[in-house]
Amino acid sequence: MRPLTLSERDVGTPAVSLKKLLTGTREPIAADTDVSLSDYVREIVDSGLPGIRPLSGRVRRAQLDGYLHRVVDRDFAVRLLGLDQEALLRGAESGPSVPRLISMMLKICSGFAKR
To answer: Do residues 102 and 76 lie in contact, with contact meaning Cβ atoms separated by under 8 Å?
Structure first.
């Protein structure tokens, strides 16, 4: 799942075409927007994730919290520590937790950096 862009959320009117930028069309970039700073902040806080976006209040916060915990507990462990994703998905109970392993690895790495 990827976050929706502002235009996919119907926030403002896009003034710059990413497609034109990526295909090499060089038009001058100049635009005004009716989207305010508070609108941008609200969009960031509300999340662009389609499954979470329609939720409100406590339910949205709980879903975002769960999403962030999953990223830290699983995605970081798989990518940074090279742990087996299947073992993580099975919920291997033995041994230190993944957040504890990450913390230990960071301490080890910081120890090497001081040398």
So the answer is: yes
**Is the Cβ–Cβ distance between 6 and 35 less than 8 Å?**
yes
What is d(CA 90, CA 85) in angstroms, rounded to the nearest whole number?
9
**What burial letters (b/e) apply to 7-16, b meaning 16+ CB within 10 Å?**
eeeebbeeee
Which CA distances in Å does 97 have to 100, 104, 107? 5, 11, 15
pTM exceeds 0.70: no
CA quadruple 74, 77, 82, 84: dihedral positive or negative?
negative
Q: What angle do CA 24, 22, 25 make, to 5 degrees?
A: 30
Q: Give CA–CA dist 64/55, Å, rounded.
A: 10
Write out the chain's pLDDT in tens, 115 residues: 678 888 888 888 888 877 888 888 777 777 888 888 899 888 888 888 888 888 988 999 899 888 888 777 777 766 766 666 666 556 555 555 656 666 666 666 665 555 4
